[in-house]
Structure formats: structure tokens, C-alpha cells
Design a protein that fits this description.
The chain is an alpha+beta fold. It is built from 40 helices and 30 strands. Strands 5, 8, 9, 10, 13, 16, 17, 18, 21 and 22 form a ten-stranded mixed β-sheet that branches. Strand 14 (402-406) and strand 15 form a beta hairpin. Helix 2 runs antiparallel to helix 3, helix 19 (551-579) packs parallel to helix 21 and helix 19 packs parallel to helix 32. The longest helix has 29 residues, at 280-308. The radius of gyration is 36 Å and the shape is elongated.
């Protein structure tokens, strides 16, 4: 092969014109803790910090690399041996990969002359350094380690085909023949332990995962649950084995780096276990939700029971009280625990714990972190699941017919179900948890280049590589943005040149590679499939001011894809002319040329009837929307590819795919992956190995310039979106206000250093940024506060949520361009992303636009497209079904969709989790965050009539010496619908006023006003009478009669136990309602034991526990009402003693003595002279 130079010059360094600088890489968790750090590494100056972090953390070899001094001389230790360490220069990585490819290509005749091989090496190094292209991650991990550093190690069971003998050999060294392939498809037989059986598959998968590759398998050969075994037993079914494989995959990461095991599980739609397979992840996600919720409830309720067992007596000492009859706090804690279904065995265990002197019970709490213990406990989290759907199913679905599930042993039908029901299940599962995806089996196999050797049954994990079982594909992607000039011109010849060179590099990678099994080594040698693709299509469109969802965008996408694949097939045909076609070509000659002709027809957008052997025809390039130069180049590429292929054949059965390019896209500083639009303008990505990245779209300035905005306008828009990345001059939280809180210049400097990568400013305020000593001594925090997982330093410093939000928008931006100054409304579609951007963004790309873009590229791809169809959270089941159906009709080969929020946790998000936990901590915090003003809400509900005979309860109480009877009326479901108030020993006017008030409240409840609104409006109302509350075992103090009434209703019907006590200082007429988030307010927990001790119960009243709370308008739970009545036997009390002595038995509100006597309609204390009323 002849290699020309376009990016380098002979005799000069491939990095000529590039500056390499010393940088440091540090990756932190959101709480500020360091996950990874490496200082003084050499990288190209133009690389972003994000690209440097990816290179340093993931792709630098960490051990076994000979170290060199500053002059480039090898370092030796005291023993005379080379000093070994890790890679510290980006050029080391570029050289070992490009050098290895060049070495193997030169050794086996891929270059005409030494000058050609040298040109190839230099051009590849230059493209890597300039971020013009990048190979898949396993190349970065593994390629060139033996070639460059002489690394060797024990063989891992790999095989390779010796290029000289063309025979399969077993590898004797783990590094000499690297594993550069990212994508594998492996077969599995219906056998347990033999070669190519089920357990053997897990071993082969482990070999791939260890070196950073992914694999997919169609498990349809395995018997279904209950099918017969040769020994007379019954099969345990497919799912039992899938769970084993999933757990095995979850334990493996490539060399301990951040790349997780990746696998695809495919299943034919007629498999007996298809229904359970479809719902597999739905059930597992529910398990995670149950574990997270249940663990928190158990921890809270059990510790409440344990705490209630320890009471404080009158002398202030702690005593053990395990009798729930006398210990009202324990009684309430037990009721709450049982109501929340805490296991009785654990509840009883708390009594034993208390008797042994323990005051805290450790119950592990789980969270929804995708890398946390909860997800690690369940299965199905390490694979993508897809169902293989033939066209026959859609015909049955359209006719609303029946679909047969067939046994694997004899192929006979074992179950018949409605096709519509199965289709609904697929959509429902995808809506719930984003799996399974769909693969359109008929379409895939109609574009198969080698059907003479078998069907395509499966794909790699991301669904872009689809070929025969037991084959592999190595990927590389071109950064499209680097092939466009600053004025938007596409550099066609540079692009063609890059496609040709990377096709050669990928072909050489097949030559040098090793594989996890003999079969894969043989077939990969025989078919030599490649996976060249591109990244940054969404960025190119945005920079040119073209909306992603537009006909012009579709035409450009189709044309660029057509050029890439056509030129790659031409390069493959050139290599076939020099080195011979791939061994399987002769058998599939006619099939492959038919597929090439269909590709060419799509470029020319021919009529439907001209396509060969296709049930569904592709969407060709629309010439009226395509730039003329791209259209001409797209068509000529296929003319040339077909001409050369007809003459010489092809070196490779497939040449292109559109890969996800997630990590390598970051290394190339791509804003978008594959043909995806941007996920959001500012993103937050969690890494499997810990840490996170803040990813900011870098295309905004270029796009704004293209659209005609001035530099000043563009700066304003960008700052509105991404923020100033400093707190200097920020509102509320700035250097001046922080200095007033105790921050010195050194602390402020450390803070400013972390703001650029902070997704929100609270991430930068932590003990890791400032140091524990500073936080403890200067800021006055306690060690317990600093150790809290959800500790919010800014709130603890006294800043309100509104002040934090304002400062956050200034520093970190709104993360959207919606509402930005100067931006015209007609330009908003240019900046639309897959999801709504930031907290205030409302726009996103339509679901169908994702599918149309896939349909534009698919006719020009050898394999398929890895792309996610993003759906908003409010998408419906019908939306999911419509998307899957449109994809099939559009000739897309496979589809995966993600409805926002369908996963409990997601690695990539457009917002952080900060604040979410605060919202769910307790009802008290949620209430405290509400605005203090009364909000008038207009309810438009019809009156809900109460039953003629209804239940309820009567509660007698004495508030500030005044007796009050509260009577409730309930609906059939146990929710409250009316109240009656009866005041004794008061004047007629006040009694009538209270009756009218009760009627008004009752009418509101019956017309749909939630009880919560009344509670919010009337608790803490202050007027006399107020003070101690008697005869109520839960409410001991109130600020008024009205306050007491709604506390009682809230506790009984809303489980608002936080309202069961009032502090004495709240009785003052000048006191104000406290805000728990206000730093000037402190939290003091009422001593329930002391209050219970001081209370006097004079009536044998039933204690009511309703299974349903609320008033029937969203306040309660729709379950049957249960009432539990207990009776308490009282001993002789002071009340009874007072009555015997002739007193009324009521306590004096002033001196608390039981010496009250009748004085007209009021009571008078003979001890102190105070009265209970107006006299």
C-alpha cells in the first residue's frame, strides 16, 4: 500500500507545530474526596483537562514501563535493573500504538516501501495527538505493551492465527499478541460444562472483560424452564444461568480501571422464557427500590424503638422502660414500626438490645447509586438486553393474531399468547427500566454480507456490531469536527485520507490480535470485520447553525456516512488486490456485491423497486437538502467501492459501524458521541472507578458566531449557560461574605481552584477542599457534621436555599440557553439536546428525530448504529411502542431507548443529586422549605357527600384550663370529612363562633381542600386560651384552641407526629415560627418521656390507629381502615384525690395545683387566685 502524507512532513517530528506541556490530573468525587491524582505528565497543550484526565486515569499504563530521566536516558536501580513505573507522557501512548501497527504492517507486507511505513507511523501519531481520531479503548489498554516495553506475562488462554502458517495457535504470552478488539459475538451451546457450553462461556467472557472488551450472545439455544433433560429431570431454565453470568461479569473491571464489563444478552421472540426475560430487569429494579426504601425505614423505625426503651426519669437519669402500656413513646414507636411492616423478629430484638445496654442499632442503609451495594446485590445490571424480532411478528401483530413460543428440544409450540400482549410487555418493560431493546432480525439479515456462512443472531453490547457468532470487531472513530474548517468547509480529501489510513490500521489489528477462543480466532481471521466510525456529528451540526431535527441535518449525516463507508470499502478492496480478499469472500461473493449495490442505490436515492432482496427499503440521501459537494462525493465513493470490489473483492466482510464513542469521544474532546445530539449542554458523569466529570459543551461560541452574534453577545450567552466559574462578585455568596464567615485568602484560593470543575458550588464547599483543621477551628463545625454524607456546608454557614441558587447560577450557570440574553427564538432549535438542560430548561429533541437520524445513516453502515432514543420522563407506553414501530419501518437495525428517570440511578445526567435527599429527609424539612406566606388556592371540586351513617372519634381535651370536645366524621375509606367542636364553660358567643368555624372547615374538606392545607394555615395560631393540654396522650402544649385542633387532626390523619409537641417559648405572643433551615434557629427535641410523665389521663379513652390517613383528597392511602382499641387501667391519681377533696380536678394554669373551684362559668384557683376565664 502506498501512503501519502497530509498531516506531517518527512524528516520532521509527527508532533511538529504542537506544544507539549506539564499538567496534572486529579479526579474527585462530588464530596471533594480525591479518587485519582497524577502530577507532571506531558500532554498536548490544546487538550482539555477532561481529555487529560481520561488519558491519565484510564489509558496510561500504570506499571511495568521503563522510566527515563529528564534527558531521556533509562533509569536503573541500585541492583542494575531498569526502574519500572507507569506512563507519564502522552507520546508514549501514541508511539506504542502507532509503532505496533506499523511494526506488524511492515512485517507482513502492508506497505510498499520503508518510506510508506514511516509515513503511516507519523500520520497516525499526528492524528492521535491532534484528536482527529481514536481507536477503541482496548487498543489504548493493550496495544504495543510488548512491542514498546517488552512486557510479558502468563498466557490467559487466548488463541491467534499465525500469519505465516495460517494455523490457529495458542498464545504463550499475554502481551505479544494483544487483545485490541472491543466487540465480540460469542455462541453458546445447550450444554452445561463442555467446551462452548454455558459455564465455558463465562470463562471466555472473563478473558474479554479483563482486557476491556465487550461481548454479546444469543441465548435462544438454551432450553426453557421445565423442558426435559436427558437424565429425566427438568431444566431450570434460561434465567437461572443468565443470573450466574451477570454476577460473574459484575465482578470484573479491566485491570482495575474505570471500564466495567459490558455484555449483550439477546433472545429470540419465540423462546419459552421470553416473558420472564422481558420483565427480568423490571423485577430487579423493583428489588433495588425495595432494598433502598426498606433499609431506611428499618433503620429509622428500629432505632426509634430502641431509643424509646430508654426513658429519662424526674431526676434526669436514664432508666429502662419496656412496658408499652406505661411508655407512650415506646407505644408510638412500636405502632409506627408495625405499620411500616418492619419484621416482628427485628422489633423484638430491640428489646433484647436495650436490655444489654445498647442505644443504637446498626442497620445498613442502601442507596440508588448504580455502583452501590443495592445494585450489586441484584442481577441483570451488567448487561444490555435485547429481543430479536422478525418481520413475521409484526405481521401477526398487525392482524392482532397469536404468537407461538417454541420448545428448544423439538421446536414444537409450548405456549400461545397474543402478539399484542407480548408487544405491550416489551414496551412496558422498556418504559419502566429502559430494557429490553429491540433488534429487527429480518432487516439485519437482509443486509448480511456473508449469509453463506450462517445467520446473524446477536450483536455486541452496544448493538453496532452485528455479524456471525464467534467473531470480533475492533473499532475506531474519526472526530468529524477536526475535518471542518473554522468557516464551516468540509475538508474532503483530509477525511478520505484519514478513512483510508484507519481502515489499514484496523486491518493490521486483526493480523496481530489474539482471541478468547479457537473458534473466534478462526472466524475473525476468515472474515476480518472492522468497525470504523465517527463522532461529533451533533457538534458539527450545532457549529454550522443547523438544527439536529431538520432535513438538512439528515442529508448531511447520510452523505458523510456514505463517504466514510464507501471510501473504507475502497481501501479494503485495495488491500484485497495486494494481499487477497478475506478467506470467506469466495463463498459469499454474490451476496456481498448485492449489499454493496444496495448501499450505492441509497446514495443515489433510487426508486423502491430497484433495491435487491429488501423487505423494507432505506431512506436515501435527499438531494434537495444536501450540500452539492457532499452529495457528489457520497455517490462517487460507492461508484469507486463497487468498481474495485467487483475487480478484486474485499479484504474485510464489514468495515464500518457507528460506535457509542463514549470514552474515546472524551479523549478527542468531542461534545457529542457518534450521531447522537448532545445529552445536555452541561453534563455530570459518574465513573465506575469513582469520581465524576463535569462536561461542558465547547461548541456554543462557534455556533453563536456562525449565527451572526457579536463576540460580546456570545460571551453573555455563554456566561448565562456555563457561568463565570468564580465567586468573585457573585450575589450573596462571594469573597466578602465568605471572609465575614471566617474564610481567609488561602481558603478562598483553594475554593476558586475547584470551582471550574464544580457542577454546583456546594460541591466545592467540603472538608477536602479546605482541610478538616480549617473547618473545625476556623469555621467552627464539629467532626460529626463533617462526616455526615449529606452535610451542606453552605446552609450550615447560614446561607438560604435562594441565596445558594442565585450564587450557583452566577458561578456554574443555568446550564441552558433558554432565556439567555440576546438569543433569538428562531435559533433555539440549534441548541436543542437529547434532554432538557439544567433546572429551568424546557426544550429537548423530539423522539422521532432520533429515529430519523438513525434512518439517515443506516443505509450506509456495514453494521449498525449505537444510539439511544432519549425520551422525556412524561413519555407514555404508547410513545414507546410508536418509537419501536417507527424504527422498524425506517429500516433501522436495532433500537435502545431511555426514558428520563426510568433508572433509579444513571451514570450520565443533566443534573446532580444534590438537594434530592434533603427533600425526602422528613416532612418537617419539606414544610420548612415552603414559603412562610399563606397561599390562596382555588379548588374546583364538587362536594363529596358523607355517608348517612359514618364513623369517627371523639377526643376530649383541656387546653389552658378550657374543656374542648373534638368530634370527627369519616368517609367509608376512613378519611376525615367533617369536624364538630363543643366548648364547655365558655360564653355562648365563643361557642357559636367555634361551631361556625367547624362548619366552614367541614365544607372545605368536603369540597376537596386537602387537610394538609388547613394544617399549614392554622397550626401555630396564637391567642388565648393556650398552654398545657390535658387528656391527650400525644399533644401536651398548644398555642391556641385552633392550634390544638389541627395538631390533633394532623397527628391522627396525616401521621404528622412532628406536630405533637410545642415548645414553651412558642406560647409567647411575640414569638415567631421557626425555620429549620434558618441558621439562627436551633433544633431542640422535646423530651417526650418527661411530658408523658407529667401528663394526667382522666378518661378511659380508646387509642385510635387508622390504616388510612387524610380526608379523601390526596391525604391518605387507599387501603381498608383498621381500628385498634386498647383499654388502660388507671391507678389513683391526683385528679381523683382533688375531686374527693371537693375540687373540680382541673389543674391551675398558673401554679399547676389541683385546687380549682367553680366560679360562675369559670374556674378559680384557691391556691394562687388565678382564674381560667374572663372574670
Amino acid at each position: 500500500m502506498r501512503i501519502e502524507r497530509r498531516f506531517t512532513r518527512r524528516g520532521q517530528s509527527p508532533y511538529d507545530g504542537m506544544t507539549f506541556v506539564k499538567r496534572s490530573s486529579e479526579i474527585r468525587n462530588p464530596d471533594g474526596s480525591t479518587v485519582f491524582k497524577l502530577d507532571n505528565i506531558d500532554v498536548p497543550d490544546q487538550w482539555s483537562q477532561l481529555a487529560i484526565d481520561i488519558l491519565a486515569q484510564k489509558y496510561f499504563r500504570k506499571a511495568g514501563v521503563p522510566q527515563r530521566d529528564q534527558k531521556g536516558q533509562p533509569l536503573t536501580g541500585s541492583d542494575g535493573k531498569p526502574v519500572l513505573g507507569g506512563e507519564r507522557d502522552a507520546r508514549q501512548v501514541f508511539e506504542r500504538m502507532a509503532g505496533c501497527w506499523t511494526h506488524w504492517g511492515k512485517s507482513y507486507g502492508y506497505f510498499k516501501t520503508a518510506e510508506d511505513s514511516e509515513a503511516f507511523h507519523d500520520e497516525m501519531c499526528c492524528m492521535l495527538a491532534r484528536q482527529m481520531a481514536a481507536p477503541n479503548s482496548p487498543q489504548w489498554f493493550n496495544t504495543g505493551l510488548h512491542y514498546a516495553y517488552g512486557l510479558s506475562g502468563p498466557a490467559q488462554g487466548h488463541y491467534y492465527v499465525d500469519p505465516k502458517t495460517q494455523e490457529v495457535a495458542k498464545a504463550s504470552n499475554a502481551f505479544e499478541h494483544p487483545q485490541p478488539h472491543a466487540c465480540f459475538i460469542q455462541s453458546v451451546e445447550d450444554d452445561l460444562v463442555n467446551e462452548n457450553g454455558i459455564m465455558d462461556l463465562w470463562i471466555r467472557e472473563a478473558r474479554l472483560f479483563k482486557y476491556g472488551s465487550g461481548t454479546g450472545t444469543n441465548f435462544s439455544r438454551l432450553r426453557g424452564d421445565g423442558e426435559g433433560l436427558s437424565g429425566g429431570g427438568r431444566s431450570s431454565g434460561l434465567m437461572s444461568f443468565l443470573r450466574i453470568g451477570d454476577r460473574a461479569a459484575g465482578a470484573i473491571k479491566s485491570g482495575g480501571t474505570t471500564r466495567r464489563a459490558a455484555k449483550m444478552v439477546c433472545l429470540d421472540l419465540d423462546h419459552p422464557d421470553i416473558e420472564e426475560f422481558i420483565e427480568w430487569k423490571v423485577v430487579e429494579e423493583q428489588k433495588v427500590a425495595a432494598m433502598v426504601t426498606g433499609s431506611k425505614i428499618c433503620a429509622q423505625r428500629l432505632n426509634a424503638v430502641l431509643k424509646a426503651c430508654h426513658m429519662v426519669d424526674g431526676e434526669g437519669s436514664i432508666k429502662l422502660d419496656l412496658d408499652h402500656k406505661t411508655n407512650s413513646v415506646l407505644r408510638e414507636a412500636l405502632a409506627s414500626a408495625r405499620r411500616d411492616m418492619v419484621p416482628e423478629a427485628y422489633i423484638q430484638r430491640m428489646f433484647s438490645y436495650a436490655q444489654q445496654g445498647f442505644t443504637h442499632f446498626v442497620f445498613h442503609e442502601y442507596d440508588t447509586n448504580w455502583d452501590g451495594k443495592a445494585y450489586q446485590t441484584v442481577s441483570g445490571q451488567n448487561s444490555n438486553n435485547s429481543v430479536r424480532i422478525p418481520n413475521q411478528f409484526f405481521s401477526v401483530l398487525e392482524a392482532d393474531g397469536d404468537w407461538q413460543l417454541k420448545r428448544r428440544i423439538d421446536g414444537k409450540a409450548c405456549k400461545t399468547i397474543k402478539a399484542r400482549d407480548l408487544w405491550d410487555r416489551i414496551a412496558w418493560a422498556a418504559w419502566i427500566c429502559a430494557d429490553p431493546g429491540t433488534q429487527y432480525d429480518t432487516t439485519i439479515n437482509e443486509w448480511h454480507t456473508c449469509p453463506g456462512d450462517g445467520r446473524i443472531n446477536a450483536s455486541n453490547p452496544c448493538s453496532e456490531y452485528m455479524f456471525l457468532d464467534d467473531t470480533a470487531c475492533n473499532l475506531a472513530s474519526l472526530n468529524l469536527a477536526t475535518f471542518y474548517t473554522s468557516d464551516g468547509q468540509f475538508e474532503m480529501e483530509h477525511f478520505r485520507h484519514a478513512v483510508r489510513l484507519w481502515t489499514i490500521a484496523l486491518e493490521i489489528s486483526v493480523l496481530m490480535a489474539s482471541f478468547p477462543s479457537r473458534s473466534i480466532a478462526e472466524k475473525s481471521y476468515e472474515f476480518r470485520t472492522l468497525g470504523l466510525g465517527y463522532a461529533n456529528m451533533g457538534t458539527v451540526l450545532m457549529r454550522q447553525g443547523i438544527p439536529y431535527d431538520s432535513p438538512k441535518a439528515l442529508a448531511i449525516c447520510g452523505a458523510v456516512t456514505s463517504i466514510m463507508t464507501g471510501e473504507s470499502y475502497s481501501a479494503s478492496a485495495e488491500m484485497a488486490a495486494e494481499l487477497s480478499p478475506f478467506p470467506g469472500y469466495a463463498k459469499n461473493h454474490d451476496h456481498m456485491l448485492r449489499v454493496i449495490r444496495n448501499h450505492r442505490r441509497a446514495a443515489y436515492n433510487v426508486p423502491r423497486e430497484e433495491y435487491e432482496g429488501l423487505t423494507i427499503v432505506p431512506a436515501g440521501i435527499q438531494p434537495e437538502h444536501c450540500p452539492p459537494d457532499l452529495l457528489i462525493a457520497a455517490r462517487r465513493a460507492w461508484d469507486h467501492a463497487l468498481e474495485l470490489g467487483t475487480a478484486y473483492g474485499y479484504r474485510n466482510a464489514q468495515v464500518t459501524v457507528i460506535a457509542p464513542t463514549g470514552t474515546i469521544g472524551l479523549v478527542m474532546d468531542c461534545d457529542t458521541t457518534g450521531i447522537e445530539p448532545d445529552f445536555a449542554l452541561v453534563k455530570f458523569k459518574k465513573l465506575a472507578g469513582g469520581g465524576y466529570f463535569k462536561i461542558i459543551n465547547q461548541s456554543l461560541p462557534a455556533a453563536l458566531s456562525t449565527l451572526g452574534y457579536t463576540d460580546e453577545q456570545a460571551q453573555d450567552i455563554v456566561r448565562y449557560c456555563v457561568g463565570a466559574q468564580t465567586l468573585k462578585n457573585a450575589p450573596f455568596i462571594n469573597h466578602e461574605s465568605l471572609r465575614a464567615k471566617g474564610f481567609d485568602d488561602a481558603a478562598l484560593a483553594r475554593l476558586e481552584g475547584g470551582l471550574a470543575q464544580a457542577f454546583e458550588i456546594q460541591f466545592a464547599f467540603n472538608k477536602f477542599t479546605f482541610g478538616e483543621e480549617f473547618c473545625l477551628n476556623k469555621l467552627g463545625f464539629t467532626q460529626a457534621q463533617l462526616n455526615e454524607a449529606n452535610f451542606n456546608m453552605l446552609k450550615a454557614l447560614g446561607f438560604t436555599q435562594e441565596e445558594i441558587a442565585a450564587a450557583n447560577d452566577f458561578c456554574c450557570g443555568t446550564m441552558t440557553v433558554e432565556g439567555a440574553p440576546h438569543l433569538k427564538t428562531e435559533h433555539l432549535p440549534v441548541f436543542d439536546c437529547a434532554n432538557r438542560c439544567g433546572r429551568i430548561g424546557q426544550r429537548s429533541i423530539a423522539v422521532d428525530a432520533h429515529i430519523r437520524m438513525m434512518a439517515a445513516a443506516q443505509p450506509f453502515i456495514s453494521g449498525a448504529i449505537s444510539k439511544t432514543i432519549n425520551m422525556p420522563a412524561d413519555a407514555t407506553l404508547e410513545d414507546v411502542k410508536a418509537a419501536y414501530l417507527l424504527a422498524w419501518k425506517s429500516m433501522v437495525k436495532a433500537v435502545a431507548l431511555y426514558r428520563d428517570g426510568s433508572k433509579l440511578s444513571q451514570p450520565l445526567s443533566a443534573s446532580t443529586d444534590s438537594g434530592k435527599t434533603v427533600e425526602a429527609v422528613s416532612d418537617v424539612v419539606a414544610m420548612a422549605e415552603k414559603v412562610a406566606e399563606r397561599v390562596l388556592v382555588r379548588y374546583l371540586a364538587k362536594r363529596r357527600p358523607l355517608p348517612s351513617r359514618r364513623n369517627g372519634y371523639t377526643q376530649k381535651a383541656i387546653v389552658g384550663g378550657h374543656k374542648l370536645y373534638l368530634r370527627t366524621g369519616e368517609y367509608e375509606d376512613g378519611t376525615v370529612g367533617e369536624i364538630f367542636l363543643d366548648m364547655h364553660k365558655e360564653g355562648a358567643a365563643f361557642r357559636s363562633l367555634m361551631n361556625c368555624f367547624a362548619i366552614a372547615i367541614s365544607l372545605g374538606l368536603q369540597h376537596g381542600v386537602p387537610l394538609e392545607e388547613f394544617v399549614e394555615a392554622f397550626v401555630f395560631t396564637r391567642f388565648e386560651p393556650n398552654g398545657p393540654v390535658k387528656l391527650n396522650d400525644r399533644i401536651k402544649m398548644s398555642t391556641s384552641i385552633i392550634d390544638y385542633i389541627f395538631r390533633e387532626l394532623a397527628v391522627t390523619y396525616l401521621d404528622r407526629y412532628d406536630l405533637a409537641q410545642v415548645k414553651e417559648e412558642d406560647l409567647r405572643m411575640d414569638s415567631m415560627k421557626k425555620d429549620e433551615l434558618d441558621p439562627e434557629c436551633f433544633e431542640e427535641e422535646a423530651d417526650l418521656a418527661a411530658l408523658a410523665k407529667s401528663s394526667v389521663i382522666t378518661e378511659h379513652l380508646p387509642i385510635r390507629r387508622n390504616g388510612v390517613k387524610g380526608n379523601g383528597h390526596g391525604n391518605g392511602h387507599n387501603v381498608s381502615r383498621q381500628v385498634e382499641i386498647t383499654r388502660e387501667t388507671l391507678t389513683l391519681t391526683e385528679v381523683q384525690s382533688a375531686k374527693v377533696k371537693g375540687y373540680e380536678g382541673d389543674p391551675c394554669p398558673e401554679c399547676k395545683q389541683f385546687t380549682m373551684v367553680r366560679n360562675g362559668t369559670c374556674l378559680k384557683c384557691v391556691s394562687c387566685g388565678s382564674t381560667s376565664g374572663c372574670s
